[in-house]
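Translate sequence into structure tokens.
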Amino acid sequence: MRDFPSAAPDLHEAEPIPEAAKAAIEALLQSGDLFRYTAPQDAPVALLEREFAEIMGTRYALAVSSCSAALFLSLKALGLPKGARVLIPAFTFAAVPSAVVHAEMQPVLVEVGTNYRLDIADLEAKIMDADAVLISHMRGHTSDMDAILALAKAHGLPLIEDAAHSLGTLWDGRKIGTLGDVGCFSFQSYKMINAGEGGILVTDDADLVARAVIMSGAYEHNWKKHVDITEAAAKWQNKLPLYNLRMQNLSACVIRPQLTELPRRIRDGLANHDFVAERLQDSGYFDVPAPLPQEVRAPDSIQFNLTGFSEAQARAFVTFAKENGVPAQIFGLSTDNARAFWNWQFIEGPPPDLPGTRAMLAVACDVRLPVRLKRDDLCFVASALISAARMVKG
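Result follows.
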């Protein structure tokens, strides 16, 4: 029986799309110009790229069909050889190693600790034989970027940031996604900005973005419609394959009005997370890893570790939490979970021995906390989770 009031909030319901997006979509439909390269200039996708680059403080942005597409294009645009060994965290979404495989490269998994962050010692041990580092800020948790950047620089390796979950996160005052050679973001429906699907990459490297623009599908001379890359792109004309990963104008019309909402969503998301985190931590049933000192997060979900639960008790906790109205998943105990590295059977070779990551995934819980939630909703979520733990532990 529940020992807490009110109705369960819908943790999958997104914020409504702004009215300005509806007006922009209607105007676009009237024009029929859904393809980003139809207009000679200032198509919605082109405007999105300029606005996003300005927000991030980068020279360039390229909007594409997904964050996975952005990661793939980044790997290809770096000019890495076929079979290149790319270091990635063992705790990430299956799309990340998939992008590496799709780019005809080899993912090399690095251990992740109980705080969901990259094990720097394991990274240091494996970086000697690597060709690139792709750091995934999984669920918005930032690893020690000072150490990672220093190691990548010392070994002369390019660094890609998968910032799909980290739009708005700061590291020592710098925006996550702008620390490496290229940063990739997601506009998928469960992210801070929701277009259903979509992604974008940012960089200050003119040659890198020129190559990515052409490979994204800027055939013939459509690359001339991108700002400040004409000289860099001209030399790659007809020399790179076209993967056709473009964003269409409809998606940009949905995204652009949400950019002004971003500061509020970042503020509310962090406040919501910290409100629930404090209550879960104080209950004694859970450990909510704290942010690193240099990190200011922008979360829209919460992760926490069960403390002192057997596997049977952990499974019972998930069942009771769902009965209480709060869907929770334990990454390593969910059937075919796409965040459990042993399920990435598309990677060549047997699953690596990663006992630290495996142990973490066996107790790490994940619950969505949409930024639109109000205080009563947050109280419900925290109470439902604590009640579920109490039902298991007594």
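Note: The longest strand covers residues 301-306.
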